[in-house]
Write a structure and sequence with these properties.
Layout lengths: L1 H15 L2 E3 L3 H4 L4 E4 L13 H12 L3 E6 L5 H11 L8 E4 H12 L3 E5 L6 H6 L2 E2 L7 E4 L14 H9 L4 E3 L5 E4 L2 E4 L1 H10 L4 E3 L5 H15 L8 E5 L2 H10 L3 E5 L5 H4 L6 H12 L5 E3 L4
Parallel strand pairs: 1-14, 2-3, 2-12, 3-4, 5-6, 5-7, 7-8, 8-11, 12-13, 13-14
Antiparallel strand pairs: 9-10
Length: 300
């Protein structure tokens, strides 16, 4: 009973200590490294949020290291080009980590060459980067899930028969975009993480190449050390994101402070009315069982 009370007290105190920010600069300047999400924070899937792009650019000018961590199933060069087209220049960040890059590294590290690919052909670059080849299911030693075939957005449940076939063959899955849902131009669409979740539910083995897995944060710490010229303690890092399930859970698991951007994927739930932001956010934290260090409506 004593332990239960203690845990409950700590949880309540943590929620009471969350900072609700009108402006983020003073808070962010406490940290040396910003690990910033892309979709929902800097970009809505169609165009950049100008105020957020300006914010990270100015944070760099004040001496912060800015590393973008995207769960997109793209390689880094592709992501840099996409960001530039969207109005986010390379003056806004020092480095980019993507799920596509992490998936390619996982294939290469584990020596997995024969890949059954669930996703559009445009993601074949992941396998090429790893020196792997795409094969039929019967010949595969691993599955890489990067999206839906032909980019056709359908209910993830329509893939259950295929996932059952994959499971019967005992194949592990590498998910090259752990997001379950993402906003594209104001519309929520399912992502590969939804398929990975279904596969895990069938009993399949799933490796997440991106947030919330620790691999994303280990990669970020390595990059930050290279940029700074020395190792940096976790206390110097701040993770910024709009997803409780990936950004907040992942950073908390890595021992990194967090800034939750309410006007992203959860905005219908927590951000419509500024007066109710605190109450709605705390209800969300209770449900998701993770409490960020601070909350802002948008990055500005």
């Amino acid at each position: 009973m004593t332990n239960t009370r203690s845990r409950e007290t700590r949880a309540l105190r943590a929620k009471d200590e969350v900072l609700f920010l009108d402006h983020c600069s003073d808070f962010v300047d406490r940290y040396r490294v910003l690990l910033c999400d892309v979709w929902g924070v800097l970009y809505d899937g169609a165009s950049a949020y100008p105020a957020a792009a300006k914010f990270v650019k100015e944070a760099r000018q004040r001496g912060c290291i800015v590393i973008l961590i995207s769960n997109a199933a793209r390689l880094g060069d592709e992501t840099v080009a996409m960001l530039a087209r969207s109005g986010i220049s390379d003056e806004c960040y020092d480095a980019v980590i993507t799920s596509g890059e992490l998936a390619a590294e996982a294939l290469l590290r584990r020596g997995l060459r024969k890949v059954f690919h669930i996703g559009p052909d445009r993601h074949a670059a992941i396998m090429v980067a790893a020196g792997s080849v795409r094969v039929d299911l019967d010949a595969a030693e691993v599955v890489v899930c990067s999206g839906f075939f032909g980019d056709e957005i359908v209910a993830p449940e329509t893939y259950i028969p295929l996932l059952r076939d994959v499971y019967k063959r005992g194949l592990p899955m590498i998910c090259a975009n752990p997001d379950v849902v993402v906003e594209v131009g104001g519309r929520m669409v399912p992502c590969p993480g939804a398929l990975a979740k279904l596969y895990a539910g069938l009993g399949g083995t799933v490796d997440l190449a991106g947030k919330p897995d620790i691999c994303a944060y280990d990669a970020a710490r390595t990059l930050a050390a290279g940029i700074a010229g020395h190792d940096l303690d976790r206390a110097h890092f701040l993770a910024i994101g709009d997803s409780m399930a990936t950004d907040m859970v992942g950073a908390a698991g890595a021992g990194i402070d967090t800034l939750f951007v309410a006007n992203g994927i959860h905005r219908a739930e927590v951000a419509p009315d500024k007066r109710l932001l605190r109450e709605a956010s705390i209800a969300l934290f209770d449900r998701e069982k993770v409490v960020p260090t601070a909350v802002c409506r948008e990055l500005s």
